[in-house]
Amino acid sequence: MGQHYKSLASAIITGVGGPDNINSVIHCITRLRFYLKDETKVDKTSLEGLDGVAGAVYNKQLGQYQVVIGPAVEDVYDEVIHQLGSNYAGGTDETDPEIDDGQAVHPRPKTIIGWIKYAFQLLIGTITGSMIPVIGLLAASGILKGFLTLFTQNLHWINPESSTYIILNAMGDSVFYFLPILVGFCAARQLKSDPIVVATIAGVLVHPSIAAIWATPTKGMPTLMGVPLNANFFGLPIHIPQYAYSIFPIIFAAWMARPVGKWLKKHTPLALRSIFVPLFTVFIVTTTVLVVMGPAISLVSAGLAAAINWLVTLNEAVAGFIIGGFYQCLVIFGLHWMVIPIISNDIASTGHSVLNGLINFTMIAQGAGALAVWAKTKHEDLKGISLAGALSAFAGVTEPAMYGVNLKYGRVFWMANIGGAIGGFLAGLMKIDMFGFTGSLIGFPSFFSPHNPFNIWAFVIAATVTLIISFVCVYFWGFSDADIQKAKAAEKKNVFKDVIE
């Protein structure tokens, strides 16, 4: 069968005019779709006479020459790309020629520390590459959520019990709640998995019935290292965490779906592939995420949450420095979700949260970092993304700034964290407290204290210092337009794909 695909692919390439006439090629469920330099060079008669080709047609509207294969299209496509080269795969080239000059990727490191740094860069490249298509929507939704909070909790222009609020909140929150589905689709495209299958897996993770398990009270349930085992799967006790708003579990799923799908495709009869390959891929990958990945993240985040809470009670200034410098690292991998219940419990039981007040400055720092990139870059596209990310971070949502700009150009993230660390340290020295949940600049009303008039000034001082230091550090030492090429190289390669290959 493999030899048949090899000869068929070679004949198809010849039939569409040879490699020199091909710009790129993609496939759908049944057809190879060629982007050609000159469609008149195609030998339609010879193509339609091939054993394995059901037809050939030029779609003028799409600019594609389509060769109808049927269920074996993916096998033929793989062989076509094998013969042409990987640079022909995936449709038109989406890189920006102005900033992607084709420079070679830096050679792989030879030391342990170098490998750790290299792996981290590739991991971040995978995450940011998976997030880029949704960054604009994240930023817009973050700004909407920020203004909605301002209009409801601070200005009281909108009643939070009204249907108007419910509708507007759904507009702002939808992209975040269903983020695993969006990111899963994008990650699958980057990691060469089936986007529809991975999006379906993400749909399982955010399904209302799964979310209901997470939301169920856990009192009296068995625990593992403090994490409640709130479900069981075929008799195996497991923990179902909050998957909405998360990205790392579904990126892992997108990585795993590729080798699983390839193995199943290889061992499944052609007539059954369209049903059983996606069926078993969804089952195997979803089971792995629910039984292994989710609980592992919950255990790690629970331990980190306990350590952070202990640190705050031990020394507020030291806690502010550490939290300000490193808290957003937890956000990257979704490890911050076990911290949220601590903050919620503090506010519900006492009306305030010192921990939330310290975390606040990490948001301001990331916004200031993105703002510095906006001020320095000469590329208009990056200016738009970075300004939107900064505004979203100042409205309390840091993901657009981090995934769209700061992590993508690594030094931006760390230089911005310097401002967060110093701002958090100052806030801790001044014994800052917070009387609401919404943070960053838009959450300033939460720092008006009924017992301590200086608290709001502590916020103003620490926020100003955070803004200035983060902006200056990023502007002078954290970013240059030369970093854009390095980020492109990291997105094209990624640690997950390297493992597969």
From TrEMBL:
It is a multi-pass membrane protein. It holds the Pfam family PTS_EIIB. It is found in: Cell membrane. Keywords: Cell membrane, Kinase, Membrane, Phosphotransferase system, Sugar transport, Transferase, Transmembrane, Transmembrane helix, Transport. One of its GO terms (molecular function) is protein-N(PI)-phosphohistidine-sugar phosphotransferase activity. One of its GO terms (biological process) is trehalose transport. It comes from the Bacteria. GO terms for cellular component: plasma membrane. InterPro entries: Glu_permease_IIB, PTrfase_EIIB_Cys, PTS_EIIC, PTS_EIIC_1, PTS_IIB_1, PTS_Sugar-Specific_Components. This is Pts systemtrehalose-specific iib component.
